[in-house]
Request: fold
Amino acid sequence: MAKRQNEQLHLSDALKEFIKENKLEKGMNKVNAREAWKNLMGNGVNNYTTQVELKNDTLYVSLSSSVLREELSYGKTKIIKMLNDDMGKELIKKIVLR
Reply:
């Protein structure tokens, strides 16, 4: 644990520092990617989504509908841009729909 600093920090800054010091960024990115997918895709797509997993810079999405998978495959670049914009950083470079 780091030494206590006498200066006052905002809670958000303290949490960011804690995440960075304890090397929790990868795990937080995985959670953020899952939440971004859930928020952006809405109930229609989420009902057919069985699993969302971020590995390195690739987002793996498992879908139970082959028709939806085919439909989403046409807009992969737009989906990647929307997800990265929602998370505020360029985490996802590729989406694999399965």
